[in-house]
Amino acid sequence: MTRVSHRIWALVLAVFFLVSCENDEKQIADLTGKVVMVEEGKDITSYLSQKGVMKAKLVAPLLYRYQADTIYSEFPDSLHVDFYDDSTRVETQLNALYGKYIETYNRIFLRDSVVVFNVEGDTLRCPEMWWDQSKALFYNDTTWRLDSRNGTHLKGTGGFEASQDLKRITFKNPRGVFPGQ
Fold first, then answer.
1. CA 72 to each of CA 34, 63, 99: distance values in angstroms, whole numbers, following the listed order
2. Cβ proximity of 136 and 163 under 8 Å
């Protein structure tokens, strides 16, 4: 008789566990899904240096830093950067309405009204570009416009590559008006 009662109890428990073990797919996804950590900062001022020499100062009203597979930071409400020469004088400035810094590659993607200008009066405008901090280089593969201090106005559709101080610029597919023409 005890053997039969043990089997009945085992059968009742097995049925109980089979009936009660229902998992909602959303609950499983919530428990096993990847979590992206987000940090928020307001009124950001960041100084960038290389080998102990200050190279730039970045100012932004808002920063979101995402810790996912690739760590990146977003500047959704604009950013401004002052670039310094070796004597820590501002030589170039950059403004954009949006920026995304990808830490792994040490690059910032800039878009929406990107403007770079230097103390000599050269102004480079484009809808988007990359800033490679390691190489101190700006570049893009889309449209651009350069208004130079000497009256040169150039436009292009094939992209450009420029040093951070705008002293060396290589344009792809340029067209425009040169002074004296």
1. 16, 10, 10
2. yes
- Domain assignment present for residue 115? The answer is yes
pLDDT at 111 over 60: yes
Given phi > 0 = left and psi -120 to 50 = alpha, else beta, which region is 121? left
> What is the rounded distance in angstroms from the CA atom of residue 181 to the CA atom of residue 177?
7
In this structure, is residue 165 part of a structural domain?
yes
Residue that is written with structure tokens 């910032």 in the block? 108
The pTM for the full model equals 0.76
Average the pLDDT over each of 75-84, 89-98, 146-155, 170-179 and give the range with the smallest value. 170-179
Indicate the burial class of 129 (C-beta count within 10 angstroms; 0-12, 13-18, 19 or more). Answer: buried
How many CB atoms are closer than 10 A to CB 103?
A: 12
Domain count of the chain? Answer: 1
Domain with 128 in it: 37-177
Q: CATH number for the domain including 130?
A: 2.60.450.10
